[in-house]
Amino acid sequence: MTNLETEAYIRCRNISKTYLKGKTEVTPLRALDLDVQKGEFLALMGPSGSGKTTLLNLIAGIDQPTTGDLWVDDKNLSGMNRAQLTDWRAKHCGYIFQLYHLVPILTAFENIELPLLLDKSLSKSERHAKVQAALELVSLADRSDHRPTELSGGQEQRVAIARAIVSDPELLVADEPTGDLDKESGRQILDLLSALSNEHGKTIIMVTHDSKAADAAGKVLHLEKGQLVENAIT
Ligand SMILES: Nc1ncnc2c1ncn2[C@@H]1O[C@H](COP(=O)(O)OP(=O)(O)OP(=O)(O)O)[C@@H](O)[C@H]1O
Ligand SMILES: [Mg+2]
Fold first, then answer.
1. For residues 135 and 139, what is the distance between their CA atoms, to the nearest angstrom?
2. Which end of the chain is more exposed for a tag (fewer CB within 10 A), N or C?
3. Ranges under pLDDT 50 in the chain
4. Mutation test of ligand 1: which of 15, 18, 19, 20 has the most ligand atoms closer than 8 Å to its C-beta?
């Protein structure tokens, strides 16, 4: 067996992140090690300001660690330039936000289609077939022509999930995806994420403040002051 086969899908090795705000340094992540297996559904908890979004952004290739190495599959994201990182992200990672971030003037269909417009190798009919499949996967085929204002919060988040998976990335990151939803809509989102992990083999990292939401994941880790801790206070 080669090394790659035995290694975790995501490997964070001694990663730190420091921001410079004026003359003040902020270090939201310190010497962090993390392994995530392929297909794992991981929940990340921790107090406000503990570095959860910072870590998610590094794993999603939106930002890069100040020190240390961050491997996803066979790619070291720490060593990439901005263009390589953007290209990697478009192919491999879908991001789901707390407040959906849909484009208000576009329909559900058009919102989901957006990431596919970057892929010039796809024909219009191929693109449309992918959007239709994503709409069906989130059970919103009948809301295709609705704009975000014509959808409930739970439906908006399902459109956002369809947009995140339409390019078929192996990795999904979600930052408090149920944070703005009522219990029932939140439950639907968690069931959808579980199905994406169990039935579609997606690796999912979900930040949440809700321990009940975290129960949907196969594993829960806690961050405190930029480090993973065993005995969490949250
Ligand atoms: N771009 C940035 N520039 C400067 N400081 C930042 C930046 N992003 C985050 N920080 C700081 O890093 C720390 C961690 O922020 P982060 O957003 O990762 O926390 P969080 O755990 O996601 O919190 P919350 O639960 O409130 O969303 C905070 O002190 C924040 O002010
Ligand atoms: Mg956050």
1. 6
2. N
3. 1-2
4. 19
